[in-house]
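Per reviewer request, we include the raw input and output of the structure prediction for the construct analysed in the revised manuscript.
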Amino acid sequence: MTIGRPITADEVTSIVIETGSAFTRAGFSGEYSPKFMLPTAYGKDREDKYYFGETALNEPVPGKEVYSPLTDGCIQDWNAISKFWRYIYEDRFKLDPREWPFVTTEQIWNPPENKKRSLEVAFEDLQVPIFSLLKAPLCATYESGRPTGLVIDVGASVASVTPVVEGNVMARSAYHSRFAGDFINLHIVNHLEKQRGIKITPTYQVQRKSVTETGEPANPVYRTFPEPMTASYDTYQIGRVLTEFKESTSQVAEAPFDLNTVHMQRLGARPFEFPTGYNLSFGPERFTTTEPLFKPSLFPIDDIPAEALSNAQGISQLVNGALSRVISSSSQSTTPGLAEANIKALLSNIIITGGTSLMQGFVNRIEYEIAQYYPTYGLTFTVAQNASERKSTTWTGASILASLGNFGQEQSWVTKQEYDEYGADLAEKRFK
């Protein structure tokens, strides 16, 4: 991890929560790593009991549905989020939210209404004394230790590319897409089920399994339940298996992958054991199932309407689009050479973050793709090699920001007194 300056304790320590599409990270400001990482999804049973945290969420309970409170990387289910944040404060930290300032993050396309709702939840539901809402790409640059950087964030449900220049998030130059990690999961399950004939059994259904030879049928002992689990619970559990496959077996080719030209023996094979004990080695499909991340329109799939894919942009198009907008906006300045200087600075600090970016070969492929558009520039990457650190890049940056001595002096906070006086409309002015 690259930190630009030592983290110093401010007058007040805050609770920092980053609510991502797949996982939420929570910890104290001024620390390098979050104290807790837990699923953002939650369960709710027939009696309207909520299930938060990995153990409770994954427990098979008849009638329990599983939901995500986020859509397109932004919070939609505010009732659930209010309960979730309270759960983090009271059940995980064992703290009273009324006594601890609250810092959280947002995507740059977060709508104004969401900013207001975040204030309402913070001050009316949790009754925190102070609240701050930080832009995720800015946090990533603070973690890198430099004020300028091109933030490429590829998570479960969203991929985004955001230029940050001298601490200013260039929102109008940013791009984002819903074709990210979950999109890869769809291609993986499509290949496994339709081309390999492998039905994915969730882990919770298996009571006991035995070791089998590669490719031989498995003979597991299945658990029995008084009634089947809900479809949403099953879908979530299958998604966990697909994510494990993606993280342990999938690989990104360093250049566009073409089965007709690649030497098969150079690909190698990688084994994967399914929850039933069935295991198989995978070769070319490790690459073919990740290629849609870069050209989604070329890989139609039944689960997504053709019109949604026709204009879909891959990671390389997002990067080029963002940098092209930087050039366009910088060219309108009266400062000579500003566009050239900005592009050079951005490409000298390319920040890679998000769980999907951990696939082997991803960073090398990004380097290849950017070089096709900008062959004369030197490319420098800021990439945490440790998986937990890369997944926590945004959280760590938020922790750094919240601990800086001048943070409160820059009107980055809203106090309970200000909220009581001006209301939720203050969010649009304070958190532009």
